[in-house]
Amino acid sequence: MPSTRDIKRRIRSVKNTSQITKAMEVVSATKMRKSQQFALSARPYAVTSLEMLKNLFLRTPESHIPPLLTARPIQNSLVVVITSDKGLAGAFNANMLKKAEAMLAEYKVLRRPYILVTVGKKAKEYFERRNEPIREAHIGYGDYATPEETQPIADMMIQGFLAGAWDEAHAIYTNFRSTLIQQAKTEKILPATQESIEEAIRGILPERGRFAESSSSTTYNLQPTNSYQYEYLFEPSPAEILAALVPQLIRIHVHHVILESNASEHSARMIAMKNASDNAKELMETLGLAYNKARQAGITSELIEVTAGSETTHA
């Protein structure tokens, strides 16, 4: 049995750890609420931009559809993996990297070339350890990403697609469903086809739960032909307007993806720190019982020694 000194040392160590995890839980909870507010408030803009993309796609003559909305044979694929810069977030990064590995493994089996871009230090370190070539690595998007910060990533995806460096672009990120549920998913960013836009809208709006209620006041119809019927009139020309509008809508989409990842990261870290604090509390209770037993055993042993010595003296 460990000595009382060893048990007291362990109790002190666990108590110090508990104080750290509790402080991190409070910090993560504060960041989580703020990041959730950013992500939830951005959802109407993201949905509206995606619906506008779909409306443009459906109502623009084929001769004027911009390249960003035009599918072409796949020769190269861009894969953007979005993780966090920091750890201690439970299975948040592990689930993301597992999904990314599965997608890259599928590309390797199909012998389809791909280009890898990472967002977050954890993804960068993970693929570097596996000698996976990384085209670009972006860090510093851990708390509350702004449109100015995410624009370089979106511009890189757009410019590479227009230049023919890749023929499709996918983002692997964690979609925020609720405080307790974060879903790792793959979303097609380019080209913005009708099917990919509908899937993105469904992914943004939860079907049930508290956060689904926040969008209940606005009905997002996936069939725009039922909500209104009209043709777009372009001035000065369809090519000039679409060339400026479509990239901006794509930037909003990319920005929203990173915001969802931010909210998921802070939620996962808060839950992980809460679990760690609860486990530390249980461990301290267990160690307290062990300490009392060891102390009682020591007292009993000393009493036996005193009694045995007294009997020997009288004898």
UniProtKB/TrEMBL annotation:
Protein name listed in UniProt: ATP synthase gamma chain
GO MF annotation list: ATP binding; proton-transporting ATP synthase activity, rotational mechanism
GO cellular component, one term: plasma membrane
Stated role: Produces ATP from ADP in the presence of a proton gradient across the membrane. The gamma chain is believed to be important in regulating ATPase activity and the flow of protons through the CF(0) complex.
Pfam family, one: ATP-synt
Gene Ontology biological process terms from the UniProt entry: proton motive force-driven plasma membrane ATP synthesis
Topological type in the membrane: Peripheral membrane protein
Compartments, record wording: Cell membrane; Membrane
The keyword tRNA processing appears for this protein: no
Gene field: atpG
Predominant subcellular localization, coarse grouping: membrane
The protein's assembly and partners: F-type ATPases have 2 components, CF(1) - the catalytic core - and CF(0) - the membrane proton channel. CF(1) has five subunits: alpha(3), beta(3), gamma(1), delta(1), epsilon(1). CF(0) has three main subunits: a, b and c.
Organism expressing this protein natively: Candidatus Sungbacteria bacterium RIFCSPHIGHO2_02_FULL_53_17
